[in-house]
Amino acid sequence: MDERRPGLDPAVAEVRRAVRGVLRGIPAGSTVIVALSGGADSLALAAAAAFEAPKLDLRAASVTVDHDLQEGSADAAAAAARSAGALGLDARVVRVDVGDAGGPEAAARDARYRALHDAARGAGAAALLLGHTLDDQAETVLLGLARGAGAASLQGMAEVAELDGIPLLRPLLAVRRATTRAACAAAGLVPWNDPHNADPRFARVRVRERVLPVLEAELGPGIAEALARTAAQLREDAEAFDEMIDETIEDIVEHAEAGISVSVAALAANPAALRHRIIRHVVASEFHESLTRSQTLEVARLVTDWSGQGPIDLPGCRARRSGGRLEFVAR
């Protein structure tokens, strides 16, 4: 059934429909916050939230983070807030200090998410809405593939996630970037074009401007959609694995002095994929650290290729075999 009303632009209708779908799951009377950069994606999201939220007895607000990384950033943030205000949203601008840990992209992202989390918590918001599109998802999958980071990174971004207790919702993950631009144009909204989004120093920009167009030209159209489908399928697989781990782990794990231990026999009896996930899960849940694939495989050798080798130093812990148990102890 076509939900468009006569005269309603198709792009506006598509964005509104996507936003309505996620807002329906939020209790009436709640507040939702739109993370508004001022770009076309987040501006289209803000406009749709401003239209759909009141119909569901929800209050919508926006937060714009000024990273102060380029000249005119304060003016751009203020303009985004004015646009949100004109849409009927309660708009705020938060300025952050960006460090240098992990590189400029990661540092800016960390500062932005901290600010958004604090704003959402301060407002008692039921959810934080992010404007990531299908194109962002495709770029994320390609970057993960290039880094060889495994299936976890190829899952891309989840439509529903959590940031320290605050639900993160990405309503536009099935919507193309061209659609959000068209929605803004149809609504008379003027998005901000962030110069960083065209700066080839950033890997994501190179993927967007160079890699994806080449793939489309050489392999045919639909590459972005195929990458997004791959992410969704891998996420489904990961959820199934997580359920298997939850069912298995209580029976094979015991607390040990200064750490935790896992049954070697039980690990050996499981397929390699599940064994490796259990090892990573134990380290992540007990010591809040992530293992690389090479580290995971080295630990797995204590189970499958035991020849008396000594302890293995890992991030935050040390793994060793003791009799029929694989022990992980704090370093």
From TrEMBL:
Domain tRNA(Ile)-lysidine synthase substrate-binding: 263-326
Keyword Ligase annotated: yes
Binding, ATP: S37, G38, G39, A40, D41, S42
UniProt feature coiled coil, ranges: 224-251
Molecular function GO labels: tRNA(Ile)-lysidine synthase activity
Catalytic activities: cytidine(34) in tRNA(Ile2) + L-lysine + ATP = lysidine(34) in tRNA(Ile2) + AMP + diphosphate + H(+)
Family: Belongs to the tRNA(Ile)-lysidine synthase family.
UniProt comment concerning the protein's domains: The N-terminal region contains the highly conserved SGGXDS motif, predicted to be a P-loop motif involved in ATP binding.
Stated name of the protein: tRNA(Ile)-lysidine synthase
Biological source species: Microbacterium salsuginis
